Amino acid sequence: MSDSPQPPGRPAVVVLFSVAAAALLGASALTAVAIADSGPAGGDPVVVGDRPSPTPRTPTSRAAGLPMCIVGTWRTVEDSLMLKFYTDADRIPFSGAGRRYEFRPDGTATEFQENWTLTGSYQGNELRLVGNGSTEFTWTATDKQVTYLARTKTSVVYESYDQRGHIGTTPQEVKADLNEVDEYTCQGNQFVEQNAANGYRSVWVRVEGTGLYG
Questions:
Q1: Where is this region: Disordered (predicted)?
Q2: pLDDT digits (tens, 9 = 90+) for 68-102
Q3: Model-wide pTM > 0.85
Q4: How confident is the model at residue 64 (pLDDT cuts 50, 70, 90)?
Q5: Half-sphere exposure (CA, 13 Å, Cβ side) for 89?
Q6: CA-to-CA distance for 110 and 92, rounded, in angstroms?
Q7: Using alpha carbons only, how large is the chain's radius of gyration in Å?
Q8: Distant-in-sequence, close-in-space partners of 33: CB < 8 Å, separation ≥ 6
Q9: Dihedral sign (CA 143, 175, 205, 93)
Q10: 32: pLDDT confidence band, cut at 50, 70 and 90?
Q11: Cβ 38 vs Cβ 16: under 8 Å
Q12: Average pLDDT in the 139-158 region?
């Protein structure tokens, strides 16, 4: 996902859904910007490592017309996006991998971040954005586009770092009118999502686990 809210007093960093993000509060000379999400749970649109199994859910019915290829459990192996990390600098390319998604046939889904780390570079210095937590969201899709309708619940918190060390902590926020639309292709065990307008691209692979429906 890729919505990018900009709270008063601190600019926002965009991270795509690819369900995606939040706002990062900066320190000293350059002010770190807030990061929204990217991807399904993000908004504006990603963590390597084992994730705890979600609480078993009761069987759900499939929402009319939803492509069954999207339904199931996925892990990102490539996340690329452009983030406005500093208020006084252009957007910077960031990359990472490791988010996990569970898409259910009733049009609900969950994104899991566990030390999901995005890295970039500014004037020769490494930048890092680290996310932890989970996000609940709603979705719909055609055969070519997926729409992330709303972020209904989230515990995600983002930490930002540059050459000075830790420079900000920003919690992700619920957003009822997310309405992010991304282009996608889904074939078997691979899902590719992108949004050219935001410079976002994410590649997922299907994994086994709770929530695997197709």
A1: 41-62
A2: 999 999 999 999 999 999 999 999 999 999 999 99
A3: no
A4: low
A5: 17
A6: 27
A7: 16
A8: 10, 11, 12, 13, 23, 24, 26, 83, 84, 85, 86, 87
A9: positive
A10: very low
A11: yes
A12: 97
Let me know: does 33 contact 86? Beta carbons within 8 Å: yes
Whole-angstrom distance, CA of residue 178 vs CA of residue 163: 33
Cβ neighbours, 10 Å, residue 161: 18
Q: Is the pLDDT score of 212 beyond 70?
A: no
Say if residue 210's pLDDT is above 90: no
At a CB cut-off of 8 Å and minimum separation 6, what does 108 contact?
Answer: 60, 136, 137, 138, 139
Distances (CA, A) of 45 to 37, 172, 191: 4, 12, 15
Residue pair 67/141 in contact (Cβ under 8 Å)? The answer is yes
Per DSSP, what are the bridge partners of residue 95? 80, 119
Task: Give me 153's structure tokens.
Answer: 């619940």
**Residue length, the chain?**
214
CA angle 95-41-10, nearest 5°? Answer: 70
Locate all alpha helices (DSSP H) within 9-98, ordered by sequence.
Answer: none
Give the C-alpha distances (Å, rounded to integers) separating 157 from 100, 143, 161, 169, 174.
16, 32, 14, 7, 12
The residue ranking higher by pLDDT, 154 or 29, is 154
Structure tokens at 173: 């926020």
